[in-house]
Amino acid sequence: MIWHSIGRLEDGVMRHPVDGESWQKFDVDYPDFSSEPRNVCVGLAADGFNPFDNMCYLHSTWPIVLTTYNLPPWLCMKESSFMLALLIPSPKAPGMDIDVFLRPLVEELKFLWQSGIRIKDAATTTFFTMKAMLLSTINDFPARSSLSGWSGQGYRACPTCNEDTPSYRAVNKVVYIGHRRFLDADDPLRMSLKFNGQPETRPAPRHFTNEDIQEQLGRIILRKPGKHPNTLKENMDRQGFELNWSKRSIFFKLEYWSSLQLKHNIDLMHVEKNVGESLLGTSMMNDKSKDTSNAREDLKNLNIRRNQWLQKKGKKVVDNDTNIIGLKSHDYHILMQRLIPIGVRALLDKETSTPIVDLFMFFKKICSRTLKVEDTRKAKEDIIRILCKLELIYPLTFFNIMIHLVLHLPYEPNVGGSEYMRWMYPFERYMKKLKNYVRNKARPEGCIAEGYVAEEALTFCSMYLRDVNRLERNEDVVIEKTKFWMFESKC
Questions:
Q1: Is residue 447 part of a domain?
Q2: pTM of the shown model
Q3: Burial of 19 (0-12, 13-18, 19+ CB in 10 A)
């Protein structure tokens, strides 16, 4: 539990959240908490899943899982380090009203931060007051919107770019193009007319500090939670000065939350999956393709790429039945880093294949278990040019918000530590385990809670009896130890 204090190597390599700027700044801002290395830093993961094998039954169960970041990297993301802190039962996803269910957990976190709890250190056989804090959350993008309060839809969908999100209204949707804004002011690519027929003179989006966010949150109009007939229209009509804020997150009730540099992580797993799905679908012209008649109409409206203008009517420019179904996030992770680059080089010309392969190599670098600060800075420069090159190849509708979020992935390891400590892969596998607890389809949440508690109790019992000498055959000793454990558990 004190590995983060005594096991960290200050060699400029990021292996753990303690190597990130957010944790280090927190230690400086709150020295009373950081002076006790046994105080606990936790991460929170929330996501919904259907507990039934038959997807025809619409039901969304939301477990809230905590993981302990005090532990070394090889233990943080193990199932043995996960705690099922909350289980939200509902036929539908809680959405923006998730704060109602999170209130008991937040109250416990406030108590653990302010007062703490007196416990015994088994290693030194001494008592101390242990406190805890929430370092960040790990979610897919829709769940991130529900927890943070920043809506991931519309012209300002990017939570990092905030009100400076580069967006454009296409024929039937909002797309996120104009990544030349992120280039240096004197970069020659800014003057190119191939993108939209105009040079790019806008400055890069601003960096919004915690003080800026607090000022924006102070302008939000307070609304009742839930979907009530009298307040539904009121909740939907967001004022312009509110930007994309739908609420003030309940996590701001935590004293330290507003000072954290990285509150909500962008989940690389879901970004990688959506990017891979869009690339495969558009390249193979299947049902997931972004190259539609409306996409070609956008090019005509902008008067660019005349050779790609639509010549005949139809839903798709090319009708192809080739489709890939049943691929999961893990499959796209393997495809993008190993198999697709080989096929892209073989089938596409160099001008088209080079930025695609560079994008896959970017994901491979970011997914590394060890990252250097220099590598992330170089990756940030590379990904801007990669997205600019892709804007010259793919239709505008290809650039949804998930494509844009790739731009911010190199920034987060410097602040939050290595990426593999902040993605959803281990939590998705853990939710599969929770799903296997369901035996009674009428009470899925009850089955999950019962299975979790039973396994926790058996694990605790086995750990307690681990110190029994295996060579000792005296059954009375084992019985007495078991009775003592049962007495302690009741207390």
A1: no
A2: 0.85
A3: buried
In the block, tokens 């019985």 appear at 479
Q: What does the DSSP assignment read for 164-227?
A: G---EE-SSSEE---GGGGS-TT-GGGG-STTTSS---PPPPPPPPHHHHHHHHTTPPP--SS-
The answer to whether residue 149 sits within a structural domain is no
Helix %, strand %, coil % for the chain, to 5? 50, 10, 40
Residue 243's Cβ-side half-sphere holds a number of Cα atoms within 13 Å equal to 24
Q: Which two tokens stand for residue 114?
A: 């302010």
* Total domain count, the chain: 4
The confidence score (pLDDT) of residue 279 equals 84
CB 31 within 8 A of CB 391: no
| 275-326 confidence digits (pLDDT tens) | 988 887 777 666 667 777 777 777 777 777 777 777 654 444 444 444 555 5
My answer on whether 126 and 274 are in the same domain is no
Q: pLDDT band for position 356 (50/70/90)?
A: confident
Four-point Cα dihedral 57, 426, 277, 61, nearest 10: 20
**pLDDT tens per residue, range 334-350:** 666 655 566 566 566 77
